[in-house]
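Lecture 7, part 2: worked example. A protein chain together with uridine-5'-diphosphate-xylopyranose.
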Amino acid sequence: MRLSVIGCGYVGLVTGACLAEAGHNVVCTDIDADRIAKLNAGVVPIYEEHLGRILDSAHKAGRISYTANAGEAIRAGEAIFICVGTPPKESGEADLSAIDHVARQIATEARTPKLVIEKSTVPARTGLELSRALSAYSKNSDVKFRVASNPEFLREGTAVADFFHPDRIVVGVEDPSSAAELREIYRPILEKNFHCPVHEGTCPPGPKAEFLVTTINSAELIKHASNSFLALKISYANVIADLCEKIGANVEEVTHAMGLDPRIGGQFLKAGLGYGGFCFPKDVQAFIHLAAKVGVDFDILKAAERVNKQRIDRFFEKIHQALWVVKGKRVAVLGLAFKANTDDIRFAPALEVVKRLIEEGALIHATDPEAMPRTKALFPHLHYHEDLYEALRDADAALICTEWQSFRRIDWERAGSLMARKLVLDGRNLYTAQRMREMGFEYYSFGRE
Ligand code: UDX
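Predicted complex, written out as structure tokens:
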């Protein structure tokens, strides 16, 4: 099918690239002409595993193109995916101005009927407003618009794999023809008959994705409800960690056993510095806001948010306990990205740690496999090291802030010989206290003695 993608951020680029790889013809557009120029020159503006490779092959095969001319992109597709940003306003409410802008553009630029699909995360009832805007701004009554919601459940770092191997594809529609069209768009993925770039075409057999047809309101709600539940789970594990510390128990033993109950499940129960990134904090806030707007009490989610914010305080309690005075101490910050396998630092707990360390007068030596360039733009005066061991040299303390695989394999004998003091504060529980103490380190983590 001929598809348009509006917005070339994480969601738009992954969606466009994967749909092109699955055999569709995709035209992408973005309000940022610079970004389009880069994409046309073969430069991928974000780091996401496999993305560069599939964009390249789709471009060479002529199945994906980029234009800064939104009208051209809008006219090219039978279906249009809206993948623009919905950032939080000061109040926590989602800012839908980009969606509104795109709706007006589609209404005025389209010459033929379109299926308009919300892919961006939006609060429930946005579809209704989108529909209203499309008909209000359309000059041609023959051009009919149908609206659908198709939330993404992509995790940064594994977004391409998630796209090709989803557990569910949710489509919120107002009529059966939209559902049929969306099923056609996702047919290669549902039938698993495409060359998977993640597994080089030899994907392990796994359950097929559920294709769920719902109302638009439900689809919109599913996305917020899912992300908020995961955030809730993380905060729950973090409170359990605090309890474990007070009582003298081990959070990993507790959450592991909890997770074996299939009703609970073992994922997203890792205690530590808490969640960050561009999705969880903003989706939780937007969901709280939506509930308040319709008069529903969502205190449970407010508590999850509060617990998450307090993770940084908890970490600093440990830092103060261990280091005493922070001012003038040389601190190695291991990890800046909000999680492993991404260069994304938006709402990263690590950056909250960095801000606090700066306030308290620490000398920061930071390292991260991918996120240093972006962090440098925000904090130009920190010391950055490509080599982890250089970051650790002469350090009074090492702070682990992101769960990168490479940080799980640190040669602590070597690190210990380089550091001024053998002190590790592990914000992601990557090591066991026993192992670190056997190697002569003072070691602090979350929810363990
Ligand atoms: C998330 C959702 O997982 C995805 O479905 C949605 O579409 C977008 O938002 P992402 O933001 O990429 O994806 O991050 P995710 O991998 O879910 O991790 C979120 C944060 O939670 C990270 O900061 C991570 O470090 C933290 N986390 C995760 C924990 O602190 N503990 C855990 O047990 C799991």
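The chain has three domains: 2-214, 223-309, 311-444. The first helix runs from residue 10 to 21. Keep this in mind for problem set question 3.
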